[in-house]
Backbone:
């Protein structure tokens, strides 16, 4: 309970001032809440786009590596072909059967080398095809996300520029609204607002319940609140109970 030793300002005026401040702060909370979601969405999209860009550049590197492999294999097959031609010439001039057969084995080896190279080239070409399909999908998603980002950024710019004026006006209003509230009470108000989830530090009693935590406020306590002799807080949540709303309202 926040007691009221001073008699300078009536409690009812203090409560009125607190309610007014709460009204302004709730509007400021709302502006920041609306704006609060969009920057996060923009950041998420930027992260997603960066991820796709890394993926595309990785694909490009992988395809370049596969093309290098193909080039090397083509060169190896060409070299083997050249060797075969040389061996075949040598075979014309052998002195005996043993030399002929030895060269024949070399020729077989080079033919095998060519077969392996051709197989590897086909494999690499197939890998490139797969990756190209994959890249096309990723690039499409990247383009879509970039459009989304552009839209969200536009939305955010509009909201920020729209609410900037409202925010400034409310901040000015807030300065005036907090002025008549004594330091001690203002500190308590700020502390309570920081402790509760919905930012409401000052509430009214509605249908016998605290407007902040919805726990029941006993009749005697309600009578004390209505009397406005001292500032009364909710015994459950600590929020200031400024008034009791009419039951038939
Ligand atoms: Zn409460």
Residues:
């Amino acid at each position: 309970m926040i007691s009221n030793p001073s008699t300078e300002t009536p409690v009812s005026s203090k409560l009125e001032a607190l309610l007014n401040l709460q009204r302004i702060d709730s509007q400021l909370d709302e502006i920041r809440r609306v704006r609060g979601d969009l920057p996060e969405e923009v950041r998420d999209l930027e992260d997603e786009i960066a991820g796709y860009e890394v993926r595309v550049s990785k694909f490009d590197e992988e395809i370049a590596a596969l093309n290098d492999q193909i080039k090397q294999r083509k060169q190896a097959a060409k070299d083997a072909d050249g060797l075969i031609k040389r061996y075949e010439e040598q075979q014309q001039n052998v002195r005996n059967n043993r030399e002929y057969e030895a060269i024949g084995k070399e020729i077989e080896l080079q033919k095998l080398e060519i077969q392996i190279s051709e197989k590897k080239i086909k494999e690499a070409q197939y890998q490139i095809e797969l990756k190209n399909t994959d890249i096309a999908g990723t690039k499409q998603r990247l383009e879509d996300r970039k459009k989304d980002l552009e839209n969200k950024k536009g939305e955010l710019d509009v909201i920020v520029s729209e609410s900037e004026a409202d925010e400034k006006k409310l901040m000015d209003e807030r300065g005036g609204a907090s002025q008549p509230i004594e330091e001690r009470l203002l500190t308590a108000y700020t502390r309570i607002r920081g402790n509760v989830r919905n930012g409401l530090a000052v509430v009214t009693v509605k249908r016998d319940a605290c407007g902040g935590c919805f726990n029941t406020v006993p009749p005697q306590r309600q009578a004390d609140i209505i009397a406005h002799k001292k500032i009364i807080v909710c015994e459950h949540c600590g929020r200031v109970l400024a008034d009791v709303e009419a039951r038939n309202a």
Notes: The chain has four helices and four strands. The two ends are 27 Å apart (CA to CA). The mean pLDDT is 92.
